[in-house]
Design a protein that fits this description.
Elements lengths: L1 H8 L1 H59 L2 H25 L4 H10 L7 H11 L3 H33 L4 H91 L6 H36 L2 H33 L4 E6 H18 L3 E4 L6 E4 L1 H17 L5 E8 L3 E8 L6 H12 L14 H11 L2 E8 L3 E9 L1
Parallel strand pairs: 2-4
Antiparallel strand pairs: 1-3, 4-5, 5-7, 6-7
Helix pairs in contact: 2-3, 2-5, 2-6, 2-7, 3-4, 3-6, 6-7, 7-8, 8-9, 10-11, 11-13
């Protein structure tokens, strides 16, 4: 528990790192969003200037045509086009005088600005009119409005002389000259307005790039530091787990050597339980706790490689822990539960519980588990013994099957119960089948001993002796194995 507590305490620096990453990302998002809004407003002003400039030029063109033709239609077109820059001018004055947003928007609408840009135009003017490049653009705007007013006055003078019939050729030349002069000044003024906003937006873009680089470096450095810290901790825990595994491996080897000399007497079985309970289960439970902790932490960190390693460690330690539980169950059966009669239970549910236990392990091998047992099939054969038998048969099938299927099926009649585990794995060699078959046939004259083949099927054979069962192996190398169990009632 002290080691687990050490892990928990070591999380505090990591929390600080994660907080730095979170704040950096938040500030980066805020700065980008804020800058984008300013740039959007600047773009809206540039777009508005194009309508301003076009309206002014079209108004002058219609006024000159009206000057030489006295066509009233040209006079009306002149007033319509001149209302475009005048609308923008009215919006500027409303903003300066603190009028309501709706009044300002009416002016911008008259200036043919897009409805979606109106709020950005108002927001930029109100909040950033003191920023140098925006302040300069507003001054250019004001000068442009003054020139628009000059055009309006010239237009009124022309209209008056035309309607009174006092317009002379000399007057026409004078008005043409004045309109050309004012238009030239407006062209320079409008160009300076656009250039000022363009320079300002480029400057903002440069600042934005610098800010992005700084915050990205902060985030990258924090993430690197965080993962470096995690890797160091995982390596430290791996060394500790390796040492523990070596100790456990030594214990298991001692148990296997000891088990070959044990008889079936109760006192010998009690020794097995004692050894497993005190020497294996406690450290295994501790390893499972550590594995579960590392699994959860690496899952939060979204580190696929470390998560994979911690997942494998957790699965291996959990399997080993389950194995020790089966050893204890096996011994308890010999000590206290050799009678095989008991109340009925659902055979389907028993098989399904075992399938759920091995489903993830089989999935890692791209294999599927199939429960072909009828849901209404019940049995009264010793549930604890059957559970251990199916567990070991499934364990062997899962270990030896990749990209395949593992099926558990069963049926009963008045005389016997039959169930089987069938896989499409690597199959058992004929020598191995012969070994287990002969071992089972000689059960009355020889003790079942452990050897290098493992102990899973040895458990099965010993338990079948208790319940008067029989086992049949059917296998094709690289074609799969079927293990069939028959139990007489």
């Amino acid at each position: 528990m002290s080691k687990l507590k050490l892990f928990k305490n070591s999380k505090k620096p990591n929390v600080i790192i994660l907080l730095v990453i979170f704040l950096s990302c938040s500030l980066l998002i805020f700065i980008n969003g804020f800058t984008i809004k300013i740039l959007s407003g600047s773009r809206a002003y540039v777009n508005g200037e194009s309508h301003y400039s076009k309206g002014q030029k079209d108004a002058v063109r219609h006024l000159i045509t009206y000057l030489y033709t006295a066509d009233v239609a040209q006079w009306e077109l002149y007033k319509i086009e001149l209302s475009v820059p005048q609308g923008d001018g009215a919006a500027r004055i409303a903003l300066i005088n603190g009028k309501s947003d709706e009044v300002v928007k009416e002016g911008f609408r008259a200036g043919r600005n897009h409805e979606d840009d109106l709020q950005d135009l108002i927001w930029v003017f109100k909040n950033f009119k003191s920023i140098p490049f925006i302040h300069k653009a507003i001054q250019e705007w004001e000068q442009g409005d003054a020139l628009i007013n000059q055009i309006e006055r010239i237009g009124l003078e022309i209209h008056k002389e035309i309607t009174t019939g006092t317009l002379t050729p000399e007057s026409k030349s004078y008005y043409l000259f004045k309109l050309s002069e004012v238009s030239d000044k407006l062209t320079i003024n409008e160009r300076d307005f656009s250039n000022t906003l363009g320079e300002g937006t480029r400057e903002i873009r440069d600042y934005l790039i610098i800010a992005n680089i700084i915050f990205v470096l902060i985030i990258f450095g924090s993430v690197s530091w965080y993962y470096s810290s995690m890797i160091k901790k995982l390596l430290l825990s791996k060394h500790e787990i390796d040492d523990t595994n070596k100790h456990l491996h030594s214990i298991i080897l001692d148990l296997e050597r000891t088990k070959t000399d044990l008889s079936r007497e109760i006192i010998q079985q009690k020794k097995i339980i004692g050894t497993i309970s005190h020497d294996i289960r406690s450290p295994l439970k501790y390893i499972v706790l550590i594995g579960n902790y590392l699994f959860d932490e690496t899952k939060k960190d979204k580190d696929s490689t470390l998560h994979k390693y911690s997942s494998s460690m957790l699965k291996s330690s959990s399997q080993l822990y389950e194995f020790t539980k089966i050893l204890i169950e096996y011994s308890n059966i010999y000590i206290e539960d050799k009678a095989h009669e008991q109340s009925k239970y659902s055979f389907y549910d028993l098989v399904q519980n075992k399938i759920e236990l091995f489903k993830e392990i089989a999935g890692n091998n791209n294999s599927i588990l199939i429960n072909s047992v009828a849901k209404n099939l019940f049995s009264h054969v010793n549930e604890r013994i059957i559970s251990i038998i199916i567990h070991n048969l499934l364990d062997n099938a899962v270990k030896n099957t990749t990209d395949g299927e593992i099926e558990v099926g069963a049926f009963t009649n008045d005389k016997k119960m039959v169930f089987w585990v069938k896989d499409t794995g690597v199959g058992m060699s004929q020598d191995l089948i012969a070994y287990y078959t002969n071992l089972f046939k000689n059960k009355e004259s020889e003790k079942l001993i452990l050897n290098n083949f493992g102990i899973g099927l040895h458990f099965v054979l010993e338990l079948l002796i208790i319940i008067n069962g029989n086992i049949v192996f059917s296998s094709v190398v690289n074609g799969g194995t079927t293990v069939t169990i028959e139990i007489d009632y």
